[in-house]
Amino acid sequence: MQTIIEPFKIKSVEPIRMTTRDEREAYLRAAHFNVFTLRAEDVLIDLLTDSGTAAMSAEQWAAMMRGDEAYAGSRSWFRFESAVRDIFGFGHVLPTHQGRAAERLLFSVMCRKGDLVPNNTHFDTTRANVEFTGARAIDLPIPEGRVPAARHPFKGDMDVAALRALIAEHGRERIPLVLLTVTNNSGGGQPVSMANVRAVSSVCREHGIPLYIDACRFAENAFFIKQREPGQGDRPVIDIARELFLSPYTVRNHISSILAKLQIANRTEAAAYAIRSGLVNP
Fold first, then answer.
1. Lowest pLDDT segment from 43-47, 61-65, 117-121, 248-252
2. What are the sequence ranges of the domains in the chain?
């Protein structure tokens, strides 16, 4: 059997308080079995989330010391802005401190009572923020995504046929947006294929419905696409990630770069250039 070791060192130790079964049962009853109202120090093994629970790397600790905490115009901000624009390509970005804050902003604007919001699988805070507006969160995972023992390279995919059926049954006007969570966090962190992203995007464009990507683990999802999806193995992970978030702003930038390299002013001149060069038949 192959021995697998963790390729890192843990640099800090934080003590936890041991509890008895009777104590834990008493804490749960006092919290009315709502784990969000438990005190963290009373929890022996915390499985509520995996967000922010991993040990920090040496580079992360060092970055905390290198960070520029200037009240305005800090180099840390410009480094963050550059990375966000490079990967996501959007002209306008509204940073928030947590995903649940972004959800609250988005759904309070997009949703109203009676709306339906389909997703491959809603995260718990996502569902709560959708349904707080009076809308209903609809999970549309592929059948394999509902069976933990099933083997499938992309169990996080959305059921595209089910999405089409939902739109046909209820009408486009009741669906203000479609969400796609990558990776599918509440589905066990399972990845979503590029083919599925493209198919869902195609359905949304066909019906004029905005598609929003919940990018909880987009980098890992891009890595799984490279490792598992036919035709993606030779692509850099960063290019796969950029395709996930291809925006009109990104498209305009690419077009501008192409026109500049060709030393032409607009698309009309580009078409004429293609005809003169024999690239297309008029």
1. 248-252
2. 99-246, 247-282
Mean pLDDT, to the nearest integer, of 157-185? 95
Q: How far apart are CA 123 and CA 129, in angstroms?
A: 10
Predicted TM-score of the model (pTM): 0.76
At residue 213, the 3 state secondary structure works out as strand
Q: Of 4, 101, 14, whose CA–CA distance to 56 is shortest?
A: 14
What's the CA gap between 249 and 90, in Å, rounded? 6
- Do 18 and 44 touch, CB atoms closer than 8 A? yes
* Residue 250 to residue 258: CA distance in whole angstroms: 12
Would the pLDDT of 11 be above 90? no
Describe the chain by its helix, strand, coil percentages, rounded to 5: 50, 5, 45
Kindly state the tokens that stand for 83.
């990375």
99-246 is classed CATH 3.30.930.10: no
Burial grade of 136 (CB within 10 A; 0-12, 13-18, 19 or more): middle
Q: Is the pLDDT of residue 113 over 90?
A: yes
In contact, 199 and 235? CB cutoff 8 Å: no
* Arithmetic mean of pLDDT, 144-162: 94
Q: What angle do CA 268, 270, 273 make, to 5 degrees?
A: 115
Task: Write out the H or E segment, with its range, that includes residue 139.
Answer: strand 136-139
